Amino acid sequence: MRGNRRHDMQQQELAFPRSAKLDEFRSNNKGHRTWELREITGYVVEFSGDQHGSRFIQNQLSTASSDERQSVFDEIVPNNILQLIQDVFGNYVIQKLFEHGTQTQKTLLATTMEGHLVYLSKNLYGCRVVQKAIECILPDQQASFVRELEPHIMGLVKDSNGNHVIQKVIERVSPDRLGFVSTFIGHVHELASHPFGCRVLQRCIEYLPDAQTRPLLDELLHHHTLNLMQDQFGNYVIQFILDKGRPEDKAVIIGQLRGRLLFMARHKFASNVCEKALQFAESEARRQLIEEIMAPASKPDGVTPIVTMMKDQYANYVLQRALGVAEGEQKETLINTVRPQLLSMRRYSTAYSKHLTSIERELEKLSPSEPSR
């Protein structure tokens, strides 16, 4: 990002030599004198595209009079707005106009953007302005934005910039205007396992009513839970449901973990889901999961799940979480089972030193040793 910004600055200066006014401003921009907005009348667009000039205008707009803001606005809208929206520094000036302008000015700014929203949403700087616009415009114009974006929704969801715009739409626009959410049905796994789609799906679950999210959740929970637990991006969606979802949806996920906890705990991505499940499960469900951890050895080698987890680079974190959330007698039993195994492994092996140190610290937090006399 930093490299791109430097390149943009170099290209900008080559393409547009600075005016004498901007040169004067930059040379005096060391605290030698205070400038006012009225002094750059006729140069607002050029200043907006300059690093120092843009910062000056941004600072001034927050305290400017209505006439001063109107003067800045008139130089930018409509002829220069699209250029500045996509500019490395100019986009911040447009965002400030959305923040501090009158509702009429905000409406005119957004109207000028209409017809270009898909392109702007996919632009590194433009997507920030589109998001700011969505925050500041009236509901009817938000709906107009949605109608323009809707035919391109899946492409935007999967775009590195566009996904942020769709997330903002889901957060800020009234759910009854978000008919596009129904197009996600049948594509839940595709979205949940996508680096940007998984974020959009989480925003749907977070902000939309059950009537809109239920088909998506049912598709996910009844067809894709185990696969997504083990997915690089899907595991975040499963974790989100465990953290923020309804009790019955959490129960479905935890039910899928039952009988598979040891296998999932040793998986790079699913281990995170196991931790979250232990943290947010209902008391009885948590007890059952921890019973699975404390089960006796089931293979001829005599190795118990606890020993396996202590040695594993991912499962040891799940064991630590279990130690932290276990309750009552089960907690005592778990501690008393882990402690002798820890001493034994310390005595006979140095291979798992890092894992064992973390488990020791967890045990110390739970049952600090008596101070020596």
Automatic annotation (TrEMBL):
<dbReference type="InterPro" id="IPR033133">
    <property type="entry name" value="PUM-HD"/>
</dbReference>
<feature type="repeat" description="Pumilio">
    <location>
        <begin position="112"/>
        <end position="147"/>
    </location>
</feature>
<keyword id="KW-0694">RNA-binding</keyword>
<dbReference type="InterPro" id="IPR001313">
    <property type="entry name" value="Pumilio_RNA-bd_rpt"/>
</dbReference>
<keyword id="KW-0963">Cytoplasm</keyword>
<feature type="repeat" description="Pumilio">
    <location>
        <begin position="183"/>
        <end position="218"/>
    </location>
</feature>
<dbReference type="InterPro" id="IPR033712">
    <property type="entry name" value="Pumilio_RNA-bd"/>
</dbReference>
<dbReference type="Pfam" id="PF00806">
    <property type="entry name" value="PUF"/>
</dbReference>
<dbReference type="InterPro" id="IPR011989">
    <property type="entry name" value="ARM-like"/>
</dbReference>
<feature type="repeat" description="Pumilio">
    <location>
        <begin position="256"/>
        <end position="291"/>
    </location>
</feature>
<protein>
    <recommendedName>
        <fullName>Pumilio homology domain family member 3</fullName>
    </recommendedName>
</protein>
<dbReference type="GO" id="GO:0005737">
    <property type="term" value="C:cytoplasm"/>
</dbReference>
<feature type="repeat" description="Pumilio">
    <location>
        <begin position="148"/>
        <end position="171"/>
    </location>
</feature>
<feature type="domain" description="PUM-HD">
    <location>
        <begin position="17"/>
        <end position="363"/>
    </location>
</feature>
<comment type="similarity">
    <text>Belongs to the PUF3 family.</text>
</comment>
<feature type="repeat" description="Pumilio">
    <location>
        <begin position="75"/>
        <end position="111"/>
    </location>
</feature>
<dbReference type="GO" id="GO:0003730">
    <property type="term" value="F:mRNA 3'-UTR binding"/>
</dbReference>
<keyword id="KW-0677">Repeat</keyword>
<feature type="repeat" description="Pumilio">
    <location>
        <begin position="39"/>
        <end position="74"/>
    </location>
</feature>
<feature type="repeat" description="Pumilio">
    <location>
        <begin position="219"/>
        <end position="255"/>
    </location>
</feature>
<feature type="repeat" description="Pumilio">
    <location>
        <begin position="301"/>
        <end position="336"/>
    </location>
</feature>
<dbReference type="InterPro" id="IPR016024">
    <property type="entry name" value="ARM-type_fold"/>
</dbReference>
<dbReference type="GO" id="GO:0000288">
    <property type="term" value="P:nuclear-transcribed mRNA catabolic process, deadenylation-dependent decay"/>
</dbReference>
